[in-house]
Amino acid sequence: MDFDPRWLLLILPVAFALGWLASRLDLRQAKRDPREAPQAYFKGLNLLLNEQHDKAIDAFIEAVQLDPDTVDLHFALGSLFRRRGETERAVRVHQHLLHRGDLPELERARAQHALAQDFFKAGLFDRAEAAYLALKGTAFEPEADLALLSLYERSHDWERAQATAECLEARGIGSFATQRAHYLCEQALQAESDGQRERAYQFLAQALALAPKHPRALLLRGQWLLRDGDAHAALTQFEQLVQLAPESFNLAAADYARAAYQAGQSRRALKTLDERYAQAPALALVLAQNLIEPEHQRERLAEHLRQQPGSLDGARRLLALVNELPDAVAPQLKAALDRAAKPRTRHRCAACGFESGHYFWQCPGCLSWDSFPPRPVEEL
């Protein structure tokens, strides 16, 4: 049977019509999906701004289902899970992104960084460390190193913290000299507790070479020299401290008085303490003077209360030296003053407000360095 060319006149229009119809259907579907996905996304964003986190998560999940290839929606959802403390779900979201073969290198590094943050938030520090180390050579390496620095501080891995801080400085992120000096002091304390005194002194020397005005290194070296019987050398360290970091000298005032007494330099020490007290009155300085001249401690405490009438700790100490009170009243009065003075003798972190009866160079609450003023609460 011969083919009739006239059939082409019928087939070609039909094929064209079917192609046009298919393209219109695809176009409508393409227009509808992006329109629905942003609508769900903006709905989730609005709920998030209104602190409705549970509903925002549902909206973001809906947006991801409508457009599973949208990377930013996955990151938004994972971040929201992490903020809510649902770290397992955040990990699954970011691991799903990492398993995608079509993800560009920058987005892959971003997903790796988000995954490391998930592990850190969950307290899985070993996995967080591995995830951050995997970011070497990527655009997120500086952020990863900063996070690793915090991680090493938390785990008291001072050697690695030192190396990481050096890398950050070399990259021009900022100066970490003070923190590195603290790391060396921590290593010195570890060496000293292990009986390696010479090594401990070497760490302190490195700290002072790195930060010559570092009060902690000067204080530790003075205390250790005094403990080892070298009062003259200890006195020199404490006098450097009062010159270079006068505010921190209060922490060493009692040790300074003992060193001066042992070195036969009591008069010189009293003069230094008087000069420092005239600049910034503090009970620690008065107590140091009383160690050298205990016979005048009542007069000095009374004078301190005249200058600092709000010093409950000073009043408590003066009351302990007074014997004229009736026996029926003295114990109750002393107990009341002890209770009232105790919270005012604590140290408070200037960064987060954490309070402690013990002075810390690094706040146990927020991990900030040098955030504790060297004065108790009542003297601030």
Overall description:
It is a single chain. The protein is mostly helical and 380 residues long. Among the domains are: 36-139, Tetratricopeptide repeat domain (Serine Threonine Protein Phosphatase 5, Tetratricopeptide repeat, Alpha Horseshoe); 346-380. The protein has 18 helices and two strands. It has helices at residues 6-49, 53-66, 71-83, 87-98, 105-122, 125-133, 141-154, 158-170, 177-193, 197-210, 215-227, 231-244, 253-263, 266-279, 283-292, 297-307, 312-321, 330-341; strands at 347-348, 355-356. A two-stranded antiparallel ribbon has the order 1-2. Helix 4 runs antiparallel to helix 5 (105-122), helix 13 packs antiparallel against helix 14 and helix 15 (283-292) runs antiparallel to helix 16. The protein starts with 5 loop residues before the first helix and ends in a 24-residue tail after the last strand. 32% of the residues are buried. The model is unreliable at 27-37 (pLDDT under 50).
Radius of gyration from CA coordinates: 34 Å
Count every helix, treating DSSP H or I runs of 4 or more residues as helices: 18
* Helix content bin: 55-70%
Task: Give the SSE string.
Answer: HHHHHHHHHHHHHHHHHHEE
CATH homologous superfamily designation of the domain at 36-139: Tetratricopeptide repeat domain
Report how far apart the termini are: 109 Å
Shape: elongated
Number of DSSP strands?
A: 2
CATH class division of the domain at 36-139: Mainly Alpha
Low-pLDDT runs = 27-37
Q: Mind describing the biggest β-sheet?
A: 2 strands, antiparallel
CATH architecture of the domain at 36-139: Alpha Horseshoe
Instruction: Kindly report the CATH topology of the domain at 36-139.
Output: Serine Threonine Protein Phosphatase 5, Tetratricopeptide repeat
Rounded mean pLDDT is: 83
What fraction of residues sit in β-strands? Answer: under 5%
Q: Biggest sheet: strands side by side, in what order? A: 1-2
Structural class label: mainly alpha
Membrane topology: Single-pass membrane protein
Subcellular location: Cell inner membrane
Protein name: Lipopolysaccharide assembly protein B
Main location: membrane
